[in-house]
Design goal:
The chain has helices at about 25-35, 80-90, 105, and strands at about 1-5, 40-45, 60, 65-70, 110-115. With about 120 residues, it is α+β, with helices and mostly antiparallel strands. Strand 1 (about 1-5), helix 1 and strand 2 (about 40-45) form a beta-alpha-beta unit. The longest helix is centred in the last third of the chain and has 13 residues, at about 80-90.
Length: about 120
Amino acid sequence: MARILVCRTCPRYERAPPPGEVTRGRALGHLLQSHTARGDTEVRAVNCLAGCRNPCNAAIDGPGKMRLRFSELTPEHLPLLFAVARLHDASVDGNLTDDELPDELLDHLSARSPARIGD
């Protein structure tokens, strides 16, 4: 199953939102979670994806696979993010090439991290 991690603390270093409002990252996470009806992608909200300088981060991750982090995401990127998550899930190691990524997301790719040992 494809897995998307979304930072709920973005933007960490901006002024805290007024009571009752959520951060942009948390709002993005809610949107991602509302689009998982197909059941082929798991969405998890996490506290930080270390992309604080460029908020609204999400990462595509999987056991034994490279993690791809995307920054400065907007709701318009969500369908593409799910498409990339499915490609990542179907890949052997998660190391998707730039040619495999949609042009609209390529400029938002902010980190490629190797698989964690023991995953």
